[in-house]
Automatic annotation (TrEMBL):
NCBIfam families: PRK11873.1 (NF008823). This is Arsenite methyltransferase. Keywords: Methyltransferase, S-adenosyl-L-methionine, Transferase. It comes from Pararcticibacter amylolyticus. Belongs to the methyltransferase superfamily. Arsenite methyltransferase family. It is an enzyme of class 2 (transferase). Residues 73-220 form the Methyltransferase domain. One of its GO terms (biological process) is methylation. It comes from the Bacteria. It catalyses: arsenic triglutathione + 3 [thioredoxin]-dithiol + 3 S-adenosyl-L-methionine = trimethylarsine + 3 [thioredoxin]-disulfide + 3 glutathione + 3 S-adenosyl-L-homocysteine + 3 H(+); arsenic triglutathione + [thioredoxin]-dithiol + S-adenosyl-L-methionine + 2 H2O = methylarsonous acid + [thioredoxin]-disulfide + 3 glutathione + S-adenosyl-L-homocysteine + H(+); arsenic triglutathione + 2 [thioredoxin]-dithiol + 2 S-adenosyl-L-methionine + H2O = dimethylarsinous acid + 2 [thioredoxin]-disulfide + 3 glutathione + 2 S-adenosyl-L-homocysteine + 2 H(+). One of its GO terms (molecular function) is arsenite methyltransferase activity. Gene3D superfamilies: Vaccinia Virus protein VP39. PANTHER family: ARSENITE METHYLTRANSFERASE. Its EC number is 2.1.1.137.
Length: 281
């Protein structure tokens, strides 16, 4: 069984490759994994092109929702985008927060950070910055953000509980998040669970929906709400790379469901300014 560090290195390697792939390849796959489909285009991602702030150079087709559309970002807000990739969600958040706000994108893949910074420079956005770092230990001080967004990223992180604790630490009291992610109902076939490509592709790293929501509650958030949910259908030409015909048939008739959800939750307004010794340093 792979360790957390091994899984992280797998994701970093794959997303370094994805940074150089065409958007069309990423959208025809599961979150950009190399198992592209010739049957179905745009397996997970929603259409960003009509949103203010959209920039085609920053859209790698890796998302599974539109968290910025549900995030309630206001002018002047400080927004953090977790797993910011080439900057797509960060630039859309910037259109919402305006020149008086600030957007910080965090990604642990150097190739993605480089691409995002190049895009920000081309757009002459001086209130959008990208920091390389692990979202389980964000390079951000406590109580810094009004809003946190993320798009199809937490399912790639082995320690999801740690990420939600970090989100709680970094949000201001009364702040909130809107996160799009992949969750499960029922158990995936072993062939998919153990496939490295499908881990980097957001599917086998997903956890049960009930457990995911439980982690948010355990981290101390209130007002937890699923803003949107849609089923994810993996095409046969991808499934056949991991499952036999018999296994595929059994999977399709099982009660297992793969879903994209967009989740909202708030840090209580009366939460202590410093949630742990040394957290404000």
């Amino acid at each position: 069984m792979s360790t957390e560090n091994e899984l992280k290195e797998l994701v970093k390697q794959k997303y370094s490759e994805i940074a150089l792939q065409a958007k069309e390849d990423n959208q025809a796959s599961c979150c950009g994994s190399s198992c592209c489909s010739t049957e179905v285009y745009n397996i997970m991602s929603d259409d960003y092109t009509q949103l203010e702030g959209y920039n085609a150079d920053a859209d790698l087709g890796l998302g599974c929702g539109l968290p910025t559309a549900f995030a309630g970002i206001k002018k002047g807000d400080v927004v953090i985008d977790l797993g910011s990739g080439a900057g797509n969600d960060a630039f859309i958040a910037r259109a919402e927060t305006g020149k008086t706000g600030k957007v910080i994108g965090i990604d642990f893949t150097p190739a993605m950070i480089d691409k995002a910074r190049q895009n920000a420079e081309k757009l002459a956005f001086h209130n959008v910055e990208f920091r390389q770092g692990d979202i389980e230990a964000m390079p951000v001080t406590a109580n810094a953000a009004d809003v946190i967004v993320s798009n199809c990223v937490l399912n790639l992180v082995p320690n999801k509980a740690g990420v939600f604790k970090e989100i709680f630490r970094v949000l201001k009291p009364g702040g909130h998040f809107s996160i799009s992610d992949i969750v499960l109902e029922g158990e995936l076939p072993v062939g998919i669970q153990s496939a490295a490509e499908m881990y980097a592709g957001c599917v086998s790293g997903a956890i049960q929906k009930q457990d995911y929501m439980g982690l948010i509650d355990a981290a101390g958030f209130t007002g937890i709400l699923i803003q949107k949910q849609k089923a994810i259908i993996i095409p046969d030409d991808i499934l056949s790379s991991y499952l036999s015909l018999e296994q595929m048939a059994a999977f399709k008739t099982s009660r297992t469901g793969i879903y994209s959800i967009t989740v909202y939750a708030e840090k209580p307004a009366d939460a202590e300014a410093c949630c742990a010794p040394g957290c404000c340093s």
